[in-house]
Design brief:
By secondary structure, the chain is mostly helical. It has a domain of 96 residues: Alpha Horseshoe (Serine Threonine Protein Phosphatase 5, Tetratricopeptide repeat), CATH 1.25.40.10. Helix content is 78%, strand content 0%. The radius of gyration is 24 Å and the shape is elongated. The protein starts with 8 loop residues before the first helix and ends with a helix.
Length: 188
């Protein structure tokens, strides 16, 4: 005659619970990029409905879930870029945010460009140029990084550098009227 196992169910089936725990933990680490993109895209949806504070919440959530994903950093940085003219404190927040995002994604040209653009808009031209050049290195077809670097150089009084940067932009888009006009106007 066999005795029935009188231990609690949780104890009798511990191996199942242990396997479930492993699957859940492994799934979290494997699918974090997808979860982060889902949070980011939810933020995009709210931003399009002009619910920008809710969008900010979801962009922050995307960053917290998977900091190595650039989407949340870029979207939140651009949100701060949009708010900065009305509330200048967002320049500092945006620079800090994009700098941290670029540390996680150093090869992302868009993050570097957005950081350079944020510096430029905050009139911090000295910091803008190296980041814009990093963006141009990361995306050799990114004409706007060269254009912004040229304008930043011009603001710093470096006309020769501005001319060099505009010529680099012309290699990418040879008939760009804005760049041609700037070269002609400033005689560089």
């Amino acid at each position: 005659m066999s005795r029935s196992d009188e231990r609690p169910y949780m104890i009798r089936t511990y191996d199942r619970w242990f396997i479930l725990l492993i699957v859940l933990v492994a799934g979290w680490y494997l699918f974090r990029p997808i979860f982060a993109y889902t949070a980011y895209y939810r933020g995009v949806s709210f931003e399009r409905m002009i619910q920008t504070k809710t969008a900010e919440h979801y962009y922050r959530k995307a960053i917290a879930i998977y900091p190595a994903g650039p989407d949340g950093w870029i979207a939140l940085g651009e949100l701060y870029y949009m708010w900065a003219p009305a509330q200048p404190a967002y320049y500092e927040r945006g620079v800090d945010l994009l700098r941290r995002g670029l540390a996680f994604n150093p090869e992302n040209a868009k993050l570097a460009f957005d950081l350079g653009r944020m510096y430029f808009r905050a009139h911090d031209y000295g910091h803008a140029i190296p980041v814009l050049l990093q963006s141009a290195r990361n995306d050799p077809r990114g004409m706007f990084a060269w254009d912004y670097a040229a304008w930043a150089s011009l603001h710093l009084g470096r006309r020769v550098d501005a001319g060099l940067f505009w010529r680099r932009a012309l290699r990418i888009t040879p008939s760009n009227p804005a760049v041609l006009a700037a070269l002609k106007h400033y005689g560089v």
